[in-house]
Amino acid sequence: MTPALPDGYRLIRVPHSRSVEFREVDHLAFGYEPDPETVAQVPDYLEWDRTSAVEAPDGSLAAVHASYAFTLPVPGAQPVECAGLTWVGTRPDQRRQGLLSAMIADHFAHCEERGEPVSALYAAESAIYGRFGYGSAADDLRVTIPRGVALRDVPGSSDLTLRFAKLDAAAHGGLVEQVHAAAGVGRPGWIGRSTDALRASALADPPAWRQGGEPLRIATVHGPDGEPRAYALLRRKEEWADNVAKTKVLVRESAAVDAAAAHRLWSFLLDMDLTASVQSGPLPVDDRIREILVDPRLATAKITDNVWVRLVDLPAALTARRYSGPLDVVLEVTDARLPANAGRWRLATGPVGADAAYDVRVTRTEDDADVALDVRELGAAYLGGRSLAAAGHAGLVEERRAGSLHATSTAFAWPLAPVCSWMF
Ligand SMILES: CC(=O)SCCNC(=O)CCNC(=O)[C@H](O)C(C)(C)COP(=O)(O)OP(=O)(O)OC[C@H]1O[C@@H](n2cnc3c(N)ncnc32)[C@H](O)[C@@H]1OP(=O)(O)O
User: Which fold has domain 314-412?
Assistant: First the structure.
């Protein structure tokens, strides 16, 4: 069902030649205006063959959205093609007349045309996207830790070398992406920056973004042959109180390829002169730092929703991931926006064979349903970080055959918590 637009409005693709107008809608919707220095220093990272809008009858842009061609790491399998929805905005004077609803339908149609079975996003407000079938599929953790707290020993940490420098995009860009990719192996949701412009924007540091802190620095950890094994992009924000230094270390993003490298990095961050605390960037909720703090209570933790996931092509999406155990279940799915997903589906997986062959079948069935749920709940559970049983406990998933929800929930769960380490 395509929601109707008001008379005279139409959905269009936006070419690069209209980029100023496109950005202006977003500035009006979000309430900001980048200064010329920021515009000059942050690369244009939108993909201009994936930018769309609603045009008003007078030819102006009333609402906009864009997407990135990502691949989304899923539990135990190759990443799946994924449209990363972004830059969604409706002009304040055009709100609540269905423009977003029409743009989302358009976005799903583009996903289908491009063969992208899932879409993911960061929600500006968490109440917006559930109605469109997106489920909150991951949380992220941000910790603030006082300087000098003790860490448990991790073998090999003290053999590694730490370097600290002013961030130089040309010199450090390759290292950051190499470590980021290696650190995310096996981690559902760990989306990589897919274009040079996105990679460059991760290192952008215009003065307006510094909030009174120093320019971005980079701490890197190296193995015996100098190979990079961890990094943190950070800035210090100088503060003094009664002649005592209270400077904060603000980490934008960090990643480590293994436990020793993570320990070496944190040992450095938690022991910087003149500082009082370290505030992390977005981490998975099961991050190593939670395990290695001697006194975890000293860390203040904040958990927020991270990526949201929408199954656009349900059978393709469910077939593209692995499950934590054998399963044979009939799911009855509701999907108000994409009726092709609705109805009864048999999801059957066997054990992994000796040859590592793995079989997942998702087929239409007329058999009685074991578990009934909306596509939103399937999206939430897709990366293995949300419990379908918990959703059932909350009244959002219905168990029709005793025991089937426990089995389904167990199979969808995954040992490593999903997260995306950067906001898009
Ligand atoms: C992935 C991203 O880019 S996230 C960024 C999202 N953008 C922003 O937050 C910028 C500021 N906000 C806006 O630009 C707009 O308010 C938008 C884009 C969120 C909504 O655009 P609109 O064109 O007004 O949405 P539309 O009229 O299609 O509303 C669809 C439904 O969503 C609801 N809705 C829209 N925005 C919100 C919201 N922020 N919170 C809760 N419900 C919302 C509407 O009430 C409506 O409900 P209904 O179907 O029950 O009537």
Answer: Nonspecific Lipid-transfer Protein; Chain A (3.30.1050)
